[in-house]
Amino acid sequence: MSIFRSIPDSRMRDLILQNMWHYQRRHSATNPEKRWTFIFEEQHPLFSTFARVMLSLQLEGLVALAPNGQFALTSKGIEYCKSNVPELHSEDRFFDDYGIPSIDEKKETPPQRLSTGTTSS
What is d(CA 83, CA 115) in angstroms, rounded to the nearest whole number? Predict the structure, then answer.
């Protein structure tokens, strides 16, 4: 039995963009060409939802696959995030330090890591 609740695609979309925007600003604020990147590992219980939402975000042009094989905000995605204040500026971020969705109150299983990094466009 999974300790994770399912997340509707619309909520996953908001949470992905919120986190990507938060960490983009945190890690790449001094270099606008640098992009913060991340991906869910396939073993993550919410991977199928993540993959479906990321495809949609790619089709919208808000995210792209970076050279390191992870996802990053595009310039269009950054502009979208900037214009969607305050929705994407909340401190209610999706991931804790182990990549576990913050909606999960229990931590009965070992943490499942997210892969993160940065890349220059």
Answer: 27
- The domain spans of the chain are 9-120
Provide the whole-model pTM: 0.72
Cα three-residue angle 12-59-94, rounded to 5 degrees: 20
Give me the DSSP letters along the chain: --SPPP--HHHHHHHHHHHHHHHHHHHHTT-TTEEEEEEE-TTSTTHHHHHHHHHHHHHTTSEEE-TTSSEEE-HHHHHHHHHSTTGGG-S--SB-TTS-BTT-----S---PEEEEEEE-
Q: pLDDT tens, 66-93?
A: 999 999 999 999 999 988 866 666 555 5
